[in-house]
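Try this one yourself first.
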């Protein structure tokens, strides 16, 4: 049994988000009719509640007193899943964001799947994000998918459109999870924050920065550097719209942590490129914009590899890439 990482320990009752209600209703109906598939693949964009839906489903399947909207929150199994210590729940996630899930973790899952339930009728394996599995881990995980147990459900979470191996996808029933429309995401965010904690304008700016992903926006709105993130985003967006370098960009980058800097500038660049008319996508500015995105990807890869590039050099490199869009 893999304990639930502290960052995703749930409240007593786990519920999906409003824009996933239709998917939840489908899963609930299939389970009640005893037609829920052995292996499920939930595909959705990060920051839109895909893990919340997966965890709600896992706790629902293990709950002793289920109801249509989810787990009861009061039975022994719900208390154990809330503490991250349920013997029939195996959650497999990277040790750190961006890291891989290796074969050793999957070997533990295979041993877990071979056992019998300890407390109830079922065991549940939750893997997120599925694309984090190494090739060797994917091959080993096929054993669970090819030799299904009637007592075990497998819930995999993946980014929409991510090319998982065909051998994995073909053995799962897939659900395409919708992202929320901007008004719905905005309404949910304002409710989650409380009127006293965030203005509508701030919420709109953060939603724009996060590409309409409300959970990601909520995390950033509650962070200590929220104002600095918004300021950097507005500076980058203004310079892109006006088509000229900005001296303020260097100061904005200096006020934000390196990882967040890369996130903000990548998101702002992507939005700008998406909004360009097709006739401008081959312009020098657009081509340099794509090159700047590649620079950001390389810097991110360097950080995740553990090489820990010099922070000042990282900031100089990404600032130069952005301001260099208009070099003659």
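Now uncover the answer:
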């Amino acid at each position: 049994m893999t304990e639930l990482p502290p960052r995703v320990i749930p409240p007593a009752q786990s519920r999906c988000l409003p824009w996933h209600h239709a998917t939840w209703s489908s899963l609930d109906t299939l389970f009640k009719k005893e037609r829920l598939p052995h292996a499920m693949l939930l595909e959705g964009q990060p920051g839109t509640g895909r893990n919340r839906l997966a965890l709600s489903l896992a706790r629902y399947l293990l709950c002793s007193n289920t109801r249509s909207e989810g787990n009861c929150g009061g039975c022994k199994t719900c208390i154990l899943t809330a503490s991250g210590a349920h013997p029939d729940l195996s959650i497999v996630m990277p040790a750190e964001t961006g890291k891989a899930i290796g074969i050793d973790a999957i070997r533990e899952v295979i041993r877990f799947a071979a056992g019998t339930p300890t407390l109830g009728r079922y065991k549940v394996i939750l893997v997120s994000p599925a694309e984090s599995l190494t090739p060797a881990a994917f091959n080993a995980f096929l054993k669970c998918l090819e030799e299904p147990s009637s007592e075990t459900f497998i819930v995999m979470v993946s980014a929409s459109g991510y090319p998982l191996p065909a051998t994995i996808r073909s053995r799962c029933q897939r659900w395409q999870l919708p992202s929320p429309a901007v008004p719905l995401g905005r309404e949910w965010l304002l409710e989650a924050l409380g009127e006293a904690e965030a203005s509508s304008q701030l919420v709109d700016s953060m939603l724009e920065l996060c590409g309409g992903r409300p959970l990601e926006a909520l995390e950033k709105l509650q962070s200590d550097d929220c104002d600095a993130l918004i300021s950097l985003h507005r500076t980058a967006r203004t310079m892109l719209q006006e088509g000229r370098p900005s001296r303020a960009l260097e100061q904005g980058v200096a006020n934000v942590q390196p990882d967040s800097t890369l996130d903000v500038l990548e998101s702002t660049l992507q939005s700008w490129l998406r909004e360009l008319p097709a006739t401008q996508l081959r312009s020098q500015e657009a081509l340099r914009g794509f090159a700047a995105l590649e620079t950001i990807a390389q810097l991110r890869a360097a950080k995740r590899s553990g090489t820990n590039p010099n922070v000042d050099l990282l900031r100089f490199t990404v600032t130069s890439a952005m301001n260099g869009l208009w070099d003659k």
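Discussion: The first helix runs from residue 21 to 32. The CA atoms of residues 63 and 77 lie 6 Å apart.
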